[in-house]
């Protein structure tokens, strides 16, 4: 069977990871990535052997920089079956007309609104609904992390209400322009934060309220999760459900911070010290008067990467069973 041809529009924090994850699969391949300027990320893409496409006006700059582009972004889009749009939040919207004109399928990231694609995706929660779709939005890192734990717990015990407080990393490690450096910022001050409503775009019936703040770190996000459950269960029952999820990793053994989780990712030789799984502190899982509490850490740079691969597989109908796609993706990337 011919491999699905995938283009990555925007080779930044998410795009470069998606490109590598797609290239690791046996049923899809990267036919090109796009960069607007010949910067260090473009140089790395060139070194890794990816065909680079650029805005027509910038093709000469790539030539001069010693990494000749394979063509314009429009030409890249024409060659693809699916374009994974990893451009900065808000920019992807302006690319929709290009994809529609070329007649290609497209995936956007969580920085775009749900309405742009009309379908918000999380592999464990609603894979089957994306089968054959032309446009899909993979929800943000925080929403992905929340859906991965809420969905199976709701299935097992029923969820009356979720309350979550998110301590969000201020920016990614390579971003030198953002802060805060010495502040904790309620973001937004007016509740709820967008994360709760975003979960509802994937699992509509879930009653959820969220609050968020930005803190001066670049490593990971931390969630304090509280769920009011319909059916009685013990903390051990919840651990069994979470432990059965391939994209949830229990952390313990003296790990008391996000810094140590990232160190584990380095030590187990994950590419770019990526942690694709939700990291749930096993000892934090607590039941009190029918309510569940736990902490989880979310690696914002990488958690959505396997979801993008599964979204491609669903849209191209390469696999109709979400659980099988998840296993296939996980095995290929080494999760």
Explained architecture:
By secondary structure, the protein is α/β, with parallel strands linked by helices. The chain is 34% helix and 24% strand. The chain contains 13 helices and 16 strands. The protein has helices spanning 13-23, 40-47, 59-64, 73-79, 96-102, 114-117, 123-126, 141-157, 195-202, 235-243, 258-267, 305-315, 322-333; strands spanning 4-9, 28-34, 52-54, 71-72, 82-85, 105-108, 120-121, 135-138, 159-169, 185-186, 208-215, 221-229, 248-251, 278-281, 286-288, 291-298. The strands form 2 sheets. Strands 4-3-2-1-5-6-8-7 form an 8-stranded parallel beta sheet, with helices on both faces. Strands 9, 10, 11, 12, 13, 14, 15 and 16 form an 8-stranded mixed beta sheet that branches. Strand 7 (120-121), helix 7 (123-126) and strand 8 (135-138) form a beta-alpha-beta unit. It is globular. The model has no long low-confidence stretch (mean pLDDT 97).
Radius of gyration computed on alpha carbons: 20 Å
Low-confidence stretches: none
How many distinct helices? Answer: 13
The end-to-end distance, rounded to whole angstroms, is 25 Å
Give the fraction of residues assigned to helices. 25-40%
Largest sheet: 8 strands, parallel
Kindly estimate the percentage of residues that lie in beta strands according to DSSP: 15-25%
The 3D shape can be described as globular
Oligomer: single chain
The total of beta strands comes to 16
Strand order of the largest sheet: 4-3-2-1-5-6-8-7
H/E series, N to C? Answer: EHEHEHEHEHEHEHEHEEHEEHEHEEEHH
Q: Whole-number average pLDDT?
A: 97
Class computed from helices, strands and strand pairing: alpha/beta
């Amino acid at each position: 069977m011919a491999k699905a041809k995938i283009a990555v529009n925007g080779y930044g924090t998410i795009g470069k990871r998606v490109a590598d994850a797609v290239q690791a699969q046996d049923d899809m391949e990267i036919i090109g990535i796009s960069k607007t300027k010949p910067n260090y990320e473009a140089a790395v893409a060139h070194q890794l052997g990816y065909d680079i496409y650029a805005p027509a006006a910038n093709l000469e700059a790539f030539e001069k920089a010693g990494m000749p582009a394979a063509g314009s972004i429009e030409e890249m889009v024409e060659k693809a079956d699916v374009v994974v749009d990893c451009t900065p939040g808000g920019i992807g919207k302006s690319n929709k007309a290009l994809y529609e004109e070329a007649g290609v399928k497209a995936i956007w990231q969580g920085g775009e609104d749900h309405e742009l694609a009309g379908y918000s995706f999380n592999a464990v929660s609603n894979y089957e609904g994306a089968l054959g779709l032309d446009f899909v939005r993979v929800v943000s890192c925080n929403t992905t992390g929340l859906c991965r734990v809420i969905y199976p717990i709701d299935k097992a015990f029923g969820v009356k209400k979720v309350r979550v407080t998110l301590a969000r990393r201020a920016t990614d490690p390579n971003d030198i322009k953002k802060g805060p450096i010495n502040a904790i910022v309620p973001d937004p001050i007016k509740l709820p934060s967008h994360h709760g409503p975003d979960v509802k775009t994937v699992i509509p019936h879930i009653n959820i309220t969220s609050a968020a703040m930005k803190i001066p770190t670049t490593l990971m996000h931390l969630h304090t999760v509280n769920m009011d459950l319909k059916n009685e269960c013990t903390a051990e029952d919840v651990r069994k459900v979470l432990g059965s999820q391939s994209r949830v990793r229990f952390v313990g053994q003296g790990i008391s911070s996000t810094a140590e989780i990232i160190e584990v990712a380095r030590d187990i030789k994950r590419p770019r010290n990526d942690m694709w799984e939700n990291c749930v502190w096993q000892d934090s899982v607590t039941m009190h008067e029918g309510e569940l509490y736990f902490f989880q850490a979310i690696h914002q740079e990488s958690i959505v990467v396997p979801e993008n691969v599964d979204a491609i597989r669903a849209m191209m109908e390469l696999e109709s069973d979400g659980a099988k796609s998840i296993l296939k993706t996980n095995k290929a990337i080494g999760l």
